[in-house]
Amino acid sequence: MFNTKKITAVLLSALFLTVLNSCDKAEDISSKNVVSQTVEFNENGITDIINPDENSEEYELGSYRISQNGIKLYYDESEIPTELMLTLEKYFTSFQNNDFELYKSCLASDYIERYNKYLIENYSSNDKEYSLKDSFELQCKNVRNLMIQQITGEFDISDDTEHSGNFKITRLKAEPAELDEDETTEELTKKFFSFLDDVLDMDYYSYISEQADSLKYFTFFVIAEGEDGEEHRIISAMDIVFAEKNGKYYTFG
C-alpha cells in the first residue's frame, strides 16, 4: 500500500487535473451579480430566457436562465440540454456544500464502483482506507483553493490562514468545445477517458459508449461569490463529459 500523505496530490480526478491550465482559453464572463427581480419558474425548474438590459453591467454576458437555486445559467438549449445543465449545477453545488451524496448522484454508478475499488486498493494505508469519499473531499478543498487564489492573487496558498475558500455559485456557462483543425469531438472524448482507461486497466471509453445512449462533451465556466462578497471566475474553459441514459446525465470525476 502507498502512503496516503505522499500521494494526495495525485488523487485529483481527470476533471481537476487541468483546471489551472485552462485560463488561456477563458472568455471573460465574470461580473458583479447585480440583477434582482421576481421570476417565474417553468416545470423544469428554470425560468424562461432573460435578456439583460443594455445598461446592465452584465449585458455583455448575454442572455441566461435562472435555476431554483438562484444560479444564472448561460447556455443554448439546442446545443446543451436543460437537464444536462441542471446536472452540471448539481455537480458543482455538491462541492460548494460538501455534499457527498449529491456528488454521487451526478456520477455514473459503474464509475462509482470501479473507481472507489481502485482508490481503496491502490491508495489506502495501513491505518486508513482511502475511498471515493476521500477523493471527493480533496476535490472540495481544491475548488476552495481556487477561490482563495482568485481573492488573494497568489498561487501559493499554503500559508493562508485568513480565507476559508467558501463560495456560492452565481453563474454557470456551458458551450460546445472548441475544436482545432481536423479535430473531432469523438477524439476529445476518447482523450478525456484515457485517464480512466489507464487506472481501470480497460477500454473504459468503449465500455461507456456501449452502455450510454449518448456522450456529451462540452466546455464550461464557473463563477462564484467568495467570502469577500465579490464574484470570481474560479474555473475557466474546462472540458467535461457526461453520459446520457434514459434522459438523465452522469459524469466521471
What does this molecule look like?
With 253 residues, the protein is an alpha+beta fold. 34% of the residues lie in helices and 19% in strands. The protein has seven helices and six strands. The protein has helices spanning 4-7, 82-97, 100-105, 109-123, 132-152, 185-199, 204-211; strands at 65-66, 72-74, 167-176, 214-226, 231-245, 248-251. It has a six-stranded mixed beta sheet with strand order 1-2-3-4-5-6. A hairpin with a 2-residue loop joins strand 5 (231-245) and strand 6. The radius of gyration is 19 Å and the shape is globular.
Helix content: 25-40%
The average pLDDT value, as a whole number, equals: 86
From the alpha carbons, calculate the radius of gyration and give it in angstroms. 19 Å
The unreliable regions are: 1-36
Q: What is the strand tally?
A: 6
Q: Into which percentage range does the β-strand content fall?
A: 15-25%
Q: How would you summarize the topology of this molecule?
A:
Elements: H1 4-7, E1 65-66, E2 72-74, H2 82-97, H3 100-105, H4 109-123, H5 132-152, E3 167-176, H6 185-199, H7 204-211, E4 214-226, E5 231-245, E6 248-251
Parallel strand pairs: 2-3
Antiparallel strand pairs: 1-2, 3-4, 4-5, 5-6
